[in-house]
Design goal:
The complex is a heterodimer of chains A (572) and B (424).
Chain A lengths: L2 H12 L4 E5 L2 E8 L2 H10 L9 E7 L24 E4 L3 H10 L6 E4 L16 E2 L10 H20 L3 E2 L3 E5 L5 H14 L5 E5 H7 L9 E5 L3 E3 L1 H14 L3 E3 L4 E7 L2 E7 L2 E3 L3 E4 L5 H7 L10 E8 L10 E5 L12 E4 L5 E4 L3 E2 L10 H11 L11 E9 L8 E4 L6 E5 L5 H21 L25 H10 L6 E3 L4 E2 H8 L8 H8 L12 H12 L27
Parallel strand pairs in A: 2-3, 4-5, 4-16, 5-12, 8-18, 16-24
Antiparallel strand pairs in A: 1-2, 6-11, 7-11, 8-10, 9-10, 13-14, 14-15, 17-20, 17-21, 17-22, 18-19, 19-20, 23-24, 25-26
Helix pairs in contact in A: 1-2, 3-7, 3-10, 4-10, 12-14
Chain B lengths: L1 E7 L3 H12 L4 E4 L28 H14 L4 E2 L3 E7 L4 E7 L2 E12 L3 E3 L8 E2 L5 E3 H10 L7 E5 L3 H12 L3 E7 L8 H8 L6 E3 L1 E7 L6 E6 L12 E4 L2 E4 L3 E3 L2 H5 L4 E2 L4 E2 L12 E3 L10 H22 L10 E8 L1 E5 L2 E3 L6 E8 L6 E7 L2 E8 L8 E6 L9 E8 L3
Helix pairs in contact in B: 1-2, 1-7, 3-4, 4-5
Classes of the chains: A alpha+beta (572), B alpha/beta (424).
């Protein structure tokens, strides 16, 4: 590759302070720039998708110290001296699914997650779409895994008892002039890329299925295999199943540094002691690059990209049963597909996400402008869409590489390491397929040092907390007769009983926080946003754990709900 | 068994409705989601309840207790800890599906009274952005923590919205030793009752900031601060006026929304102005046999009026079956519609039964904006048939007016209410 040429190109736009060099076959950018967008722009400019090198970003942002990774407050020695076969770093969908797949072998697996729960970053902050893969061209890892992953969803969600619906995806087009190119595009995807469910349907058919879609849509590309799943629900289910099969999930556990010698990670220092793993899997999301650096194996860079979704009331869920967006073939800027509207597995609608480059990996604050933009755009999909139906909104941060593809491979310099990095959309869809491959790779690597046997007692089935509101009156009655707590309603919007909340607190991976319960069984997810049930959920947590009410937290860190007792509550 | 009346909700509206229906001789059952009767009054330990009705200043639980005693003395059955999951309408009656510790049960009634109260608007519904830390509570949630659970939700607190519960909580937390840094109201005038402005803020030196709002929330774990901004006439934040206030709690009192998910499932027509059902002078919705009262019908500021509305619904439901034999008479000819013009936000009921034209009826209204000396007029076929003068009207203060329709010459299909400032 010609660094001189690249450097000239980059300098012509972003100034002469940038240096472009080569390191181990990859491109390294260094220097200082004033704006983060310019850093992203400069690095992106150096990407060559045909030639498979990576772009490493060593550019500095002038006068700005990039925020450091937020660390858990706990400091103890709970994991000191642990010698797992496999240490998985990161409890998102990637880490959790890999941990579960690893349990098919007799392996000692430890998953370290720095947050107070799994699925706290991108896996808990996305729209839950199981993508059909229609938007991906051939030749990328994303494309390689998306079809395989999609096709595994029915089975995996059944095994893990997670609600999943193949509700179909519609990409509506507004101009007849785009029919031929769209048709050719659809054919290419269908016959060349293996997206076998692709069809072009008429506006009439479209409106018969989804009467509220914009009447200006002349036709649409339709994929019946697209679906909706609860992304954190699936991550939790994977993690629980891993735990049931013998894995250890260590929450509030951050990797701080690694001792690497002769191309091998000897030990990993965490806030809970030093760990001596046989091999390490880097599934650290936005921090994958940082973990790679610690392991002496950094050959790619992550540029965080923020996205915000609005969640609409279930009443608005009637507007659409599937997933839809509109598109034009006219060139639009940006990496995003422009978001869409998703009918979630829980029958809400999600509107978004947008895509904004950011250097803040953990800034999940929402902005009013994101919501405005999402609605402006998606009113082209469904005209009746109204901001009045918003019950809440959230922001997530994607973890793409500059090549916008996954990095799934063995360490290049550090040999007992596997990277599962650059996992952004459609990372939820690909997870089941990626996990299988990565686990196989890991088992093989461990077997180099000692024999690895199949786990004969491996149980792929995980039973979730019963969802009483979905049951027939007879089934529901039977369960309540067995356990009257199932008849005590705590969350009125989502119809969640005390029994379900207690079950969540007694699950294989219990998290004793209001948000932990909310993510597992949904009290507080409805239109009152916990106004009525949150104090009651806090009380049940206090009851189950024996900790006083004022020690109950919303989520991690010091997110205490309360400041001690009132004068009367204190008996004063 | 088939009940004549099932009342859903055991707060002040539901209690009054059940008592009234029972006194009319109906077979009544009350269903309450929580373990005790009284609804939100259970946590309203401040005084000022019952001034109109009992000419006494009672606390919320005291006010509720008077109704609960009467309810029990009439031996009305109540199902507590019982949650209605769905309602099915058949030709003759309603099937009410419930869940409780005893299991799933289907109850049948000829009429239904929906006394389901209201819920609070949340931070996201008033478009506050930023992070999602602990320490953002609606006033009612904060009140639940403080008064029912005996725990402190706040230490240094900003209150957004000058709704009554917000004002009450400002004083309550101040008494518990919290710092109340200020109450911020997006509107140019307060949205709570005047008496609460004086008794909760002025008497406790809590500053009120009008035309200012909270625009952002800071903090990862616990709230660390909020951003305040001035707003323009359209109530939009003015760029450049933002300032940060360090605090650990944000309490919201930004409006109440009638809870009508059950009514909607029965396809009751809703009034976008009240966010409650369209009701007639019998408190009946446009689904025959379904009645609505209290804060589910429209948000009240005095519990006395909630009880009154419950009584009307109770009496009507009992009489509806007895007198009209549940006749599903829906022809528009039986009603006169109530319309509003000028400075009125709404008037309820929205329809008058023609058979009530010889009676004294109670109407409630809210004005759109604060006005000085004003005149309420009811106009039928171009003729003013009723007039009443008010010294002043304010949107937060709902007005109650009794009109003797027998003395008003009402013709045609509508009665139009107007409210206008009297020109000096």
């Amino acid at each position: 590759m010609d660094c001189q040429k690249l450097q000239k190109k980059v300098r012509s736009i972003y100034g002469n302070s940038i240096r472009v060099t080569e390191k181990d076959g990859n491109i390294v950018l260094s220097g200082t720039l004033k704006k983060w967008e310019d850093i992203v722009g400069a690095c992106s400019l150096c990407v060559d998708k045909k030639r498979r090198y990576h772009v490493i970003n060593n550019l500095k942002l002038e006068n700005t110290e990039l925020p450091k990774m937020k660390l858990p407050h706990i400091q103890d020695q709970a994991l000191e001296g642990r010698k797992p076969d496999v240490l998985v770093i990161g409890g998102g969908i990637s880490g959790a699914s890999i941990a579960r797949e690893l349990m098919k072998w007799k392996l000692d697996v430890l998953l370290a997650e720095k947050e107070s729960d799994v699925a706290m970053h991108a896996s808990g902050r996305n729209d839950g779409e199981v993508h059909p893969g229609i938007d991906l061209g051939k030749g990328t890892l994303k494309q390689h895994y998306v079809i395989a992953g999609n096709r595994m969803y029915g089975k995996i969600c059944k095994e893990l008892d997670v609600p999943f619906k193949r509700c179909g995806q519609y990409v509506g087009m507004m101009h007849w002039s785009e029919l031929l190119p769209a048709y050719l595009y659809a054919c290419q995807r269908k016959y060349m890329c293996g997206v076998s469910d692709t069809r072009v349907i008429s506006g009439k058919t479209l409106r018969k299925r989804e009467p509220h879609l914009n009447p200006d849509m002349k036709f649409a590309i339709y994929n019946s295999m697209a679906g909706s799943v609860c992304p954190y629900g699936l991550t939790i289910a994977y993690a629980e199943n891993a735990v049931q099969n013998g894995a250890e999930v260590a929450l509030n556990t951050a990797v701080l540094s690694m001792d690497v010698k002769d191309g091998k990670i000897r030990s990993v220092l965490t806030n809970r002691g030093r760990i001596y793993p046989e091999i390490v899997i880097n599934a650290a999301g936005v921090f994958a690059e940082d973990v790679a650096e610690m392991a002496g194996d950094r050959f790619y860079s992550i540029h965080p990209r923020r996205g915000t979704n609005a969640i609409l009331d279930k009443k608005a869920g009637k507007l659409m049963g599937g997933i839809a967006s509109w598109k034009t073939l006219k060139k639009t800027s940006g990496h995003t597909k422009g978001g869409g509207i998703v009918h979630t597995a829980h029958d809400n609608l999600l509107v978004g996400p947008d895509a904004v480059e950011t250097y803040e990996k953990e800034n999940f604050a929402t902005q009013a402008s994101s919501i405005e933009n999402n609605f402006k755009k998606q009113q082209g999909t469904v005209k009746e869409l109204s901001q009045r139906d918003i019950i809440t909104y959230f922001t997530g941060v994607r973890a793409p590489t500059f090549e916008e593809d996954f990095v799934i491979e063995r360490g290049r310099k550090t040999k007992n390491l596997i990277h599962c990095a650059g996992i952004q959309s459609p990372g939820l869809t690909t997870a089941p397929a990626v996990a299988k491959d990565v686990a196989k790779m890991a088992a093989k690597m461990v077997s180099a040092s000692h024999p690895v046997k199949k786990n004969e007692s491996y149980n792929p089935y995980r039973k979730g907390v019963p969802r009483l509101r979905e049951m027939s009156p007879e089934q529901r009655n039977k369960l309540i007769q067995k356990r009257p707590d199932y008849g005590v309603m705590i969350c009125r919007c989502e119809e969640i009983s005390k029994g379900e909340i207690v079950d969540a607190l007694c699950s294989p991976l219990p998290v004793y926080t209001v948000d932990g319960v909310k993510k597992r069984v949904r009290p507080g997810m409805g239109r009152c946003q916990g106004g009525f049930c949150m104090p009651l959920v806090a009380e049940i947590i206090s009851e189950v754990t024996g900790q006083p009410l004022e020690k109950v937290k919303k989520s991690g860190g010091d997110s205490y709900l309360l400041f001690g007792k009132t004068k009367a509550g204190d008996g004063k | 068994m088939i009940y004549d009346v099932i009342v859903i909700g055991g707060g002040p509206a539901g209690l009054a409705a059940a008592i009234a229906a029972k006194k009319e001789g109906a077979q009544v059952l009350l269903i309450e989601r929580e373990g005790r009767l009284g609804g939100i009054l259970k946590q309203c330990i401040h005084d000022g309840f019952g001034l109109q009705r009992f000419k006494e200043k009672l606390s919320g639980p005291e006010y509720a207790e008077r109704f609960i005693e009467e309810f029990h003395s009439l031996e009305i059955p109540a199902k507590l800890w019982t949650f209605v999951t769905k309602i099915r309408k058949s030709d003759q009656d309603f099937q009410v599906w419930t869940v409780s510790r005893n299991g799933v049960e289907m109850l049948v009634s000829r009429t239904l009274i929906l006394a389901t109260g209201c819920r609070e608007r949340t931070a996201k519904q008033v478009s506050i952005h930023g992070t999602r830390p602990a320490g953002v509570y609606t006033a009612g949630t904060a009140q639940h923590f403080t008064n029912l659970q005996g725990v402190m939700p706040a230490r240094r607190c900003v209150i957004l919205g000058s709704g009554d519960i917000g004002l009450i909580m400002a004083r309550r937390l101040k008494l518990e030793g919290a710092d109340i840094l200020g109450v911020y109201e997006v509107r140019p005038e307060p949205s709570g009752l005047t008496r609460n402005m004086i008794q909760c803020l002025e008497d406790f030196d809590i500053p009120l900031h009008l035309s200012e709002t909270v625009t952002r929330i800071f903090g990862d774990d616990r709230l660390t601060g909020v951003e305040i901004a001035k707003v323009d006439e359209q109530m939009q934040p003015v760029p450049g006026t933002e300032k940060r206030i360090d605090c650990d709690t944000l309490i919201l009192s930004v409006g109440l929304i009638p809870e009508n998910e059950m009514a909607e499932s029965l396809r009751v027509t809703m009034d976008p102005r009240t966010k409650g059902p369209v009701c007639d002078s019998w408190a009946m919705t446009d689904v025959p046999g379904v009645f609505s009262c209290g804060n589910a019908f429209h948000v009240n500021d005095l519990v006395d009026y909630v009880s009154e509305s419950g009584e009307l619904a109770g009496t009507s439901a009992a009489r509806y079956f007895r007198e009209l034999k549940g006749e599903a008479d829906r022809t528009a000819e039986n009603w006169i519609s109530v319309e509003t013009e000028g400075g009125l936000a709404y008037v309820v009921p929205q329809k008058i039964r023609k058979s009530d034209l010889d009676k004294k009826l109670v109407f409630y209204f809210r004005c759109r904006r604060t006005m000085g000396e004003s005149m309420l007029a009811a106009i039928s076929a171009g003729k003013t048939v009723f007039e009443k003068k008010y010294q002043a009207v304010r949107p937060p203060e709902m007005e109650r007016v009794v009109i003797d329709l027998s003395k008003a010459d009402i013709v045609g299909t509508s009665l139009v209410f107007q409210l206008g400032e009297v020109q000096a």
